[in-house]
Amino acid sequence: MANIKSAEKRIKVIAKRTAINRRVKTHLREIIKDFNKAIAENDLNVAADKLSLAEKKLKQAAAKGTIHKNTASRKISRMAKQFNKAKAQ
User: Fold this and answer.
1) Tens-level pLDDT at each residue, the chain (89 residues)
2) Within its chain, how far is the Cα of 66 from the centroid?
3) Neighbouring residues of 82: CB distance < 8 A, sequence distance ≥ 6
4) What's the CA gap between 10 and 8, in Å, rounded?
5) How far apart are the first and last CA of the chain?
6) Do 39 and 47 form a contact (C-beta atoms < 8 A)?
7) Which domains does the chain have, with CATH numbers?
8) Pairwise CA distance, residues 85 & 89, whole Å
9) Which residues contact 50 (CB under 8 A, 6 or more apart)?
10) What is the C-alpha separation between 18 and 24, in angstroms, rounded?
11) Contact between 47 and 83 (Cβ < 8 Å)
12) Which segments of 1-89 does DSSP mark as H helices, in order?
């Protein structure tokens, strides 16, 4: 356990941020899972909504530092590619 007051505060702050980041990442996984489910069921209207929501949430998470910006861009790109492929069929 920390002996210094500032170190004790940092431990509390880190615990709070970890909880927030964990919630955000879980939410992102759920959105991506919903998108993949819509693509699998060939429901393009729902997939389009989920894609736009996922893009927004991924960019927000990257801006806050929860995930790396390149990771967010890669995920968005792959989802868009998957959506366009499904739309073309």
Assistant:
1) 789 999 999 999 999 999 999 999 999 999 999 999 999 999 999 999 999 999 999 999 999 999 999 999 999 999 999 999 999 98
2) 9
3) 39
4) 5
5) 59
6) yes
7) 8-88 (1.20.58.110)
8) 7
9) 31, 34, 35, 38
10) 10
11) yes
12) 5-40, 44-64, 69-88
Who contacts 87 (Cβ-Cβ below 8 Å, separation ≥6)?
A: 44
Q: How far apart are CA 11 and CA 75, in angstroms?
A: 31
Give the position of tokens 């949430």: 57
Structure tokens at 70: 């390149």
Judge contact between 31 and 53, C-beta under 8 A.
yes
Which amino acid, residue 83?
F
